[in-house]
Design brief:
Length: about 775
């Protein structure tokens, strides 16, 4: 009996040992691993998984947090800290649970040494999702080399108010374009959705879709202000791109927005996080709070009296993890013990977090190696890609008398003037603005012309400084030159938003931030005395080319009327100077198209292409200061530059539009058009396809983008572009808030821009 008992004990211990290995067994199913680990965790350990700390503090703090944040240091240092933190989590804690390492990756990893790509608003104006998917893959390579598991990127907000500072982080004003571009980024970062349904491949990184939802249309354009949205507008516009990335790209995480919609903050919205995201869309990832947003429920929005009440509101709504520093969710321990909230709600959140940890391979994948950074980060291929994206993002807005491209063989001298001519500008969520990190436009021009053209440089003025002391030097430079390039614009937050990192006077330049997170404007004209500068330069009579380097649509009405050539460069990344110079001198044919409508003035906001039939007023008698009218008295409601607009150094002709069926039911149909390059240069054209529901039971926009494709054609070459449509593409949210396609007539349109329709056909949906 004695020996039998010993053998039984040994056998029992062996069984327990085997059971203990289930959650650490990579061959076991994710569900089994999660179930096994959950039953071993204490309440306190579960709630620790719902919190966050920094990578620096992970080893030293008690407990095991679910997420740790990469610091804003060099990628080699990030990799070193990553290895130490994850080794500690996996080898020195009771259950061996590693943290999810997060980082900002909006247009490159937010760390020293990473490749800096054009800002998101520039990415959107490429209208090239294949290019953005390649960029996402390159960023994932650099991020994963430093141990990053999850990117807090990209944004699926819409550009609908030029005053709003975070427009630069967005892809476009149109929900379909945003959904396509953002999903391409996610696919590049995470991997193909058929792969990520199983797990995250090696060298890839989980993504976070933000900000859910309606964040980018705040009252008066002020960041975090309420959004005045009805459910139909919310679903039609602001939820659409999120639905696309959840269903089509299988994004792993969603971040609710700071704002409120109809009186309910997103972090307490059962409608957004449970009804729509989980129940309707079947989202299987986890909800990652925005920084401090759970605390906002009691200290900003005032819908909770204290931390415990805020914790209850957020966890019931479906917020799984609290970022940045745990302020509210630690209250859950006592709330569960007091019976004020069910432990099942905690389990629901923790189960989602652990599921993505197992699917991302966090329990098995090798630790980051600082020695790998040099071979994987800022490689020649990544630098070349940054330049290619910049080249395709620049939009030629005006080119009177074919002033561009400049001919360096005929040009003896060129003035380069302006506050952003010799200063890199990358946009928000960048680690630096040091010129050593990239190529300025002045430097790019010098790279193109070499010693063959004399360059006369003058800064002229600052971005916000009201001093005109530099005007005389700028005018002299212009007068001594054959032509003038004036580079105006803005400067944005570095490192990240809401005051993190260096501020004005502590970084590389003195100008205060004018765009980015928390930097909203009441005036969208050129800032400071920049318009005065270009007016003074234009008065010399020399040919002037305006280049804009900034993060939002500007009101450049005077410039459009008086400056012959205008380039929109947004924030073009570290290779922006080379890209802009190549376009100025014709080495690259511009192919960018506007992803946001330019308003005539701040008083015209909001302005966008997909307006409702009543949006332009009923009088249709626009006025002017010389001849007052109605809608408006002294102006028209028309845009300054329309959505989808962008010139080329060649020309394109649209013809032979065809529809496979002019009367159809619940089936797919094809629409096609022939595009011909009728100029004498190779060029790229963005073929845009729009629809208009002629009669609906609720109002619909005058046009809505449904498909697009960027193609390249040689001189004289033609290509047929075909799009497949589903009847569901023609749907609307009816008066019962059901998504349906109503029988009736639809106008199909191929266009060069929202205001330049080339071909039209009317089709009938018969149901």
């Amino acid at each position: 009996m004695k020996f039998g008992s010993i053998y039984l004990c040994i056998a029992f211990m062996a069984i327990l040992s085997l059971q203990a290995q289930v959650y650490k067994n990579p061959k076991a199913s994710v569900e089994d691993r999660v179930n096994d680990l959950m039953q071993r965790m204490t309440l306190e350990e579960k709630i620790e998984q719902m919190g966050m700390t920094s990578l620096n503090d992970f080893v030293n703090k008690p407990g095991v947090y679910g997420v740790c944040e990469s610091p804003f240091v060099g990628l080699d240092k990030v990799a070193d800290l990553s290895a130490k933190a994850k080794k500690h989590g996996r080898e020195n804690t009771r259950l061996g649970i590693p943290p999810i390492q997060i980082a900002e990756c909006l247009h490159g990893v937010l760390a020293y040494g990473a490749t800096i790509y054009p800002q998101a608003i520039a990415q959107g104006s490429t209208w090239n999702p294949q290019l953005i998917e390649r960029m996402g893959s390159a960023i994932a390579t650099e991020a994963s080399a430093a141990g990053v598991d999850q990117a807090l990127s990209p944004l699926f907000d819409l550009i609908r108010d030029a005053r709003y500072g975070r427009n630069e982080e967005c892809y476009a004003e149109d929900p379909y374009l945003v959904g396509i571009m953002g999903s391409a980024f996610v696919t590049g970062m995470q991997g193909r959705p058929e792969q990520t349904k199983i797990g995250i491949p090696a060298g890839k990184v989980m993504c976070t879709a933000k900000h859910f939802a309606g964040y980018s249309v705040p009252w008066a354009g002020i960041n975090l202000a309420p959004a005045s949205l009805g459910e139909r507008e919310l679903r039609t516009l602001h939820l659409t791109p999120f639905e696309m990335v959840v269903k089509d790209a299988n994004v792993y995480s969603v971040m609710p927005s700071y704002n409120e919609v109809d009186g309910v903050p997103a972090h307490a919205s059962d409608f957004l996080l449970n009804q729509v995201l989980r129940n309707e869309w079947k989202f299987e990832g986890y909800v990652f709070s925005d920084y401090g947003s759970v605390s906002h429920l009691y200290n900003f929005h005032n819908i909770a009296k204290d931390r415990p009440e805020a914790a209850i509101r957020a966890v019931r709504a479906g917020v799984d993890l609290e970022a940045a520093r745990p302020d509210v969710y630690p209250s859950l321990v006592q709330l569960v013990k007091d019976g004020k909230i069910s432990e099942e709600l905690v389990d629901r959140a923790v189960r989602r977090i652990l599921t993505v940890k197992f699917k991302a391979g966090l329990f098995e994948k090798p630790y980051a190696n600082p020695n790998d950074i040099k071979s994987k980060v800022h490689t020649p291929a990544h630098i070349a890609l940054a330049r290619e994206i910049a080249e395709e993002s620049v939009v030629l807005l005006q080119n009177n008398n074919n002033l561009l491209p400049l001919d360096k063989k005929k040009l003896r001298s060129l003035a380069v003037i302006g506050p952003n001519a010799d200063q890199v500008q990358y946009g928000d969520y960048s680690y630096t603005r040091d010129n050593k990190s990239g190529v300025t436009i002045l430097e790019g021009i010098k790279n193109v012309v070499g010693n063959n053209v004399k360059i006369n440089y003058a800064k002229g003025c600052g971005i916000t400084d009201l001093s005109k002391e530099g005007f005389a030097e700028a005018i002299k430079a212009a007068e001594e030159s054959d032509a003038v390039v004036v580079v105006l614009g803005e400067t944005s937050v570095i490192l990240s938003g809401l005051g993190w990192g260096k501020g004005p006077g502590e970084g590389e330049i003195e100008d205060p931030f004018t765009t980015g997170e928390g930097y909203d404007l009441t005036d969208i004209n050129p800032i400071g005395v920049q318009r005065d500068l270009i007016q003074a330069v234009a008065a010399t009579g020399k040919p002037v080319i305006l280049v804009l380097v900034h993060g939002r649509p500007w009101s450049i009405k005077w410039e459009k009327e008086n400056i012959p050539a205008i380039l929109e460069a947004w924030y073009p990344g570290e290779q922006g100077g080379n890209a802009v110079a190549d376009i100025l001198f014709g080495n690259v044919n511009p192919s960018g198209k506007l992803n946001a409508t330019f308003p005539q003035s701040v008083g015209h906001i909001p302005v966008f292409y997909d307006y409702k039939p009543s949006a332009k007023g009923i009088n249709r008698e626009p006025g002017s200061p010389e001849k007052p009218g109605r809608d408006y008295v002294f102006s028209s409601p028309d845009p300054l530059f329309s959505f989808g607009f962008g010139l080329s150094y060649t020309t394109f002709e649209y013809s032979e539009m065809q529809v496979s069926k002019e009367s159809f039911g619940k089936e797919d149909l094809n629409v096609s058009v022939k595009i011909t390059n009728t100029g004498n240069r190779i060029g790229k054209e963005v073929v845009q396809f729009y629809i208009h529901d002629k009669i609906g039971t609720v109002t619909t926009p005058v046009m809505a983008l449904k498909r697009f494709e960027k193609i390249e054609l040689k001189p004289g070459e033609s290509k047929n572009v075909t799009f497949k449509l589903s009847y569901k593409d023609l749907g609307l949210w009816n008066s019962q808030m059901q998504y349906v396609t109503e029988p009736g007539e639809f106008e199909f349109m191929f266009a060069k821009s929202a205001e330049d329709v080339q071909c039209r056909k009317t089709v009938v949906f018969t149901d």
